[in-house]
Design a protein that fits this description.
Shape of chain A: globular
Strand order of the largest sheet of chain A: 1-2
Largest interface: A-B, 27 and 29 residues
Oligomer: heterodimer
Radius of gyration of chain B: 17 Å
Number of helices of chain B: 10
Strand content of chain B: 25-35%
Helix content of chain A: over 70%
CATH topology of the largest domain in chain A: ABC transporter involved in vitamin B12 uptake, BtuC
Largest sheet of chain B: 6 strands, mixed
CATH class of the largest domain in chain A: Mainly Alpha
Structural class of chain A: mainly alpha
Structural class of chain B: alpha/beta
Helix content of chain B: 25-40%
Shape of chain B: globular
């Protein structure tokens, strides 16, 4: 009995911290529909600054406040300086806040170093009290009390004050609220800063449970996200409920099933997604866009050219058009073929890596660029394929390439079919959040399942592909050409898909899903198929990456790998296939150059690229390159200018009969 | 005095208004009639700043307001009664009113008490949530909410939409009473109601003004009614 009570208290105290952590995220997502992935990083700022202030002043309370103020300021700068201009542009917000995560984490590392620090418990709260045979720290009671107090205050603020009512009015209908004279922009900035302040407040308070280290930015984001999905966005009660459930599930999981405790909260997440995708007390409209926003997004994207040059020749092209269309690809292929034997081995290795990442990036482009399914867990598909190769090669001693390649691809396809099914329970922002959770789940599996995956040591000793030809050993150049062939095949397959009737229907889903549904398309299936194809091609990249490194480690599954893929897609130009290929070149080369000259500042540069990309380079490089290439177009154009609507030729018919 | 001159508004690349000019004099109720999709709502959204015009001018008491943010335009004295009423469902009736509250500088004008006096039903329902009201009550709440901002001009977008004939009458009475203190621009499909309350009528067709006259003149002009309104 005492044991259960103790576990219960542990769960509730963790839940209180989770509530403080998530309240801001829930509020900004519910009210402003802003996806702030940097919320965890802001929490981290609160923890580090709070600790520093406490050490300087010697007062825990001042430390708490100092951390909160610092976090609030970071939030204020982010919203007023950047996010405000990205209103209603979900993918822009996502990428911008990812950029901020990298920058914040790197700056924190710069100032405080990479070594984890430990949280502090003020002397007055450091006692423990006994519950039967168990001891329970008083500090945890303080957490519970403080968490509940803040919950009540936030609830009173949101439900009983005029400012709170104004916030709710903004959630309900921001257009009418604005037209009644309410300055929602200022209100939003204030709410965002408040959410950041509260998260920062719990940075130091939660340090004994969450830790103070560089990983905590991602960990905190993940926990807050799960709480918000379980509880539902936009209401204090929902967030509190979600936080307490996750806290208790975690505590009881750790007590009774210590081996699989890490997965307990994911089980809770998956159950909620399957049976109540809008969360326990959610405001359902925060998932669905209003009809009005739909039309706006259509008019916005109507200005963007559909994939060029793919769209320029959808009517049956003549020989010259065909040549014009293929010339850049043939040219690029020739350059790559010639570079192979010419480059010194270091650069050949780098170029091989570029090609592997290019496969990964174009696979993501199918989902993200064409399907509008922004995924931050794409590395999962790459990782499982790589691990399949690793396990079969290292543990089972299978060397034959013709066994390992299909095995990796099949596993990636299976995993994408499973993960895709669950992720498609929700759409938009939630889809993104759930993909992060699954990516992270698989990374945890890779870390914890030591017997099979080798844990953090990984699987080492994967030899170059054995093609099964007697007397022939693949050298670096041979491996390069193998990867090159794989890229060509993947590119050709994806190009065929995106220019097919299916591909055009998928773009239709991206542009306006309800309209496609009302035209008789099974949009769920269109999206599901896109995820599976995308995951399968990512699996190809994973197989080659395992060969490339000769090892598989959990970081290939981790969120940084997924965000690198995203950056390649948006930098190059989503929905173009060749754009992400260029993005892969830029990112891989950029990383190499940076690691040579400023090895510790790469994340800072990466974050900067993210932000510049979102603020200045809409649509990536691809539209600029296409426009340049259009100048060499033979004969009068048969398709209208870039700004016009491309002729889509025959109407695809994928409708249910 | 609210004045539009040669206003052109676009939705993305699609032009919706092709040079609309109209005026709402002080203390007058001006009606806009026209079929669905002809641009009445777009005119209101243009004035409100929700879809700012690409060309042309919108002046309120001589001051150019085109291009300002909607909340700024609202604070300059335009009250908005949106199509579909736009009640905030997660706010109580009272909260729906108080969040819009803005006093005149001299302290005169509408207050919560005065609004409750004018709409006793809202006082009775003040603790209920907005979405639990009937259509007519919601319409009254929407009008009352706009009055709480103490505007000098009210924009009303189809206040009769979806209401029973008797309730339409009640709303007409309210609008006529408002004339004493406010100018009103009224977009309507309900011809008889518009003719009954308005001092002057514009007919909007395909994004332009095709006819303007007094209500009496219009009701005698069968040809215009048939061509642009599909009635008579």
């Amino acid at each position: 009995m005492e044991r259960i009570l103790t576990i219960f208290l542990i769960g509730i105290s963790f839940g209180s911290i989770l509530f403080l952590l998530s309240a801001g995220l829930s509020l900004t997502m519910g009210l402003m529909r802003i996806v702030n992935l940097a919320h965890g990083a802001i929490f981290m700022v609160g923890a580090y600054v709070g600790l520093a202030v406490t050490n300087i002043t010697g007062h825990f309370t001042i430390g708490l406040l100092g951390g909160a103020v610092a976090a609030g300021l970071v939030g204020l700068i982010m919203e007023a300086g950047f996010l405000r201009r990205l209103y209603k542009q979900e993918s822009g917000q996502v990428l911008l806040t990812i950029g901020f995560i990298y920058i914040i984490m790197n700056v924190v590392q710069w100032i405080w170093g990479a070594k984890p620090l430990s949280g502090i418990v003020p002397g007055s709260l450091s006692a423990v009290i006994g519950i039967g045979d168990f001891y329970f720290p008083v500090f945890r009671f303080f957490m519970i009390g403080f968490g509940l107090l803040m919950a009540v205050l936030l609830w009173l603020f949101q439900d009983k004050t005029k400012v709170g009512a104004t916030i709710r009015a903004g959630m309900d209908n921001r257009q009418v609220a604005t037209a009644l004279g309410i300055n929602l922009k200022r209100l939003f900035t204030a709410v965002f800063a408040l959410g950041s302040f509260v998260a920062g407040l719990c940075g130091l308070l939660g340090a004994p449970l969450m830790g103070i280290n560089l990983q905590v930015g991602w960990d905190a984001l993940l926990l807050a996200m799960i709480v918000v999905i379980v509880g539902g966005t936009g209401s204090v009660q929902g967030t509190l409920l979600g936080a307490m459930i996750i806290g208790l599930v975690d505590a009881f999981g750790k007590a009774y099933f210590p081996d699989i405790a890490y997965f307990a909260i994911y089980v809770a997440l998956i159950l909620i997604l399957l049976f109540r995708p809008s969360g326990l007390l959610g405001r359902p409209f925060s998932i669905q866009k209003t009809a009005e926003e739909m039309t706006q997004s259509v008019t916005l994207s109507a200005k963007m050219p559909l994939s060029i040059p793919a769209a320029t020749g959808l009517r049956k092209p003549g020989a010259r058009q065909r040549l014009y269309r293929l010339a850049p690809f043939i040219g690029a292929a020739c350059v790559l073929i010639m570079l192979g034997p010419l480059l010194p081995s270091f650069y050949l290795g780098m170029l091989t890596k570029v090609l592997i990442y290019a496969i990964f990036a174009i696979s993501l482009d199918l989902m993200m660029g064409y399907g509008g399914l922004t995924s931050m867990g794409h590395a999962a598909f790459l990782g499982v394929a790589g691990y399949t190769v690793g396990i079969l090669a290292v543990k089972e001693g299978i060397g034959l390439f013709w066994v390992l390649l299909p095995a990796g691809i099949v596993v990636a396809a299976l995993i994408s079919a499973i993960i895709g099914y669950i992720c498609l329970r929700v759409s938009g922002t939630y889809f993104l959040l759930v993909t992060i959770a699954f990516g992270q789940l698989l990374a945890i599996v890779a870390t914890k399942w030591y017997k099979v995956t080798g844990g953090t040591d990984g699987l080492v000793g994967i030899k170059r592909p054995d093609l099964g030809i007697p007397g022939f050993n693949l050298g670096p150049i041979g491996f390069y050409f193998l990867v090159f062939i794989a890229l060509v095949v993947c590119f050709a397959v994806l190009y065929r898909i995106v220019t097919s009737a299916y591909g055009r229907a998928l773009v239709g889903v991206r542009e306006n899903e309800p309209r496609m549904r009302s035209l008789g398309y099974n949009t769920w299936r269109l999206k599901y198929v896109a995820i599976i194809i995308s995951g399968t091609v990512a699996g190809v990249a994973g197989v080659f990456l395992a060969y490339y490194y000769g090892a598989m480690v959990p970081s290939t599954l981790a969120i940084e790998m997924s965000t690198a893929g995203m950056l390649m897609v948006i930098l190059g130009g989503p929905g173009t296939l060749f754009g992400p290929f260029i993005g892969a070149i830029v990112v891989v080369l950029g990383e190499n150059i940076s690691l040579t000259y400023v090895p510790d500042r790469w994340p800072l540069i990466l974050g900067g690229i993210f932000i510049l990309c979102v603020m200045l380079l809409r649509g990536g490089f691809a539209p600029y390159l296409s426009r340049l290439y259009q100048r060499f177009r033979p004969e009068p154009a048969r398709i209208t200018d870039l700004g016009g609507v491309p002729d889509l030729g025959e109407v695809p018919d994928l409708r249910e009969s | 005095m609210l004045e539009l001159q040669n206003v052109e508004t676009f939705y993305g690349e699609r032009q919706a208004l092709f040079g609309v000019s109209l005026a709402v004099p002080k203390g007058a109720v001006v009606g806009m009639l026209g079929r669905n999709g002809m641009g009445k709502t777009t005119i209101i959204r243009t004035i409100m700043g929700i879809n700012p015009p690409r060309r042309g001018s919108v002046r309120l008491n001589g001051r150019e307001i085109a291009g300002l943010e909607p909340d700024r335009i609202a604070r300059l004295g335009i009250g908005f009664v949106p199509q579909g009423r736009g009640i905030f469902p997660s706010l109580s009736v009272k909260e729906n009113l108080t969040i819009a509250e803005r006093r005149n500088e001299d302290g005169t004008g509408w207050t919560l008490e005065k609004v409750y006096d004018a709409f006793p039903i809202l006082k009775k329902r003040q603790r209920q949530y907005g979405n639990l009201l009937s259509g007519g009550e919601q319409q009254m709440l929407s009008i009352a909410r706009a009055l709480m901002t103490n505007p000098d001009t009210l924009l009303m977008d189809e206040p009769s939409e979806g209401l029973a004939p008797m309730v339409v009458n009640d709303i007409s009475v309210i609008i006529r009473e408002l004339k004493a203190s406010h100018s009103v621009l009224l977009a309507e499909q309900h011809m008889n109601m518009a003719l009954a309350v308005a001092d002057y009528i514009y007919i909007i067709n395909k994004g332009t003004v095709v006819h303007e006259s007094s209500p009496e003149e219009l009701s005698n002009n069968v040809d215009i009614c048939r061509r642009f309104l599909g009635v008579c």
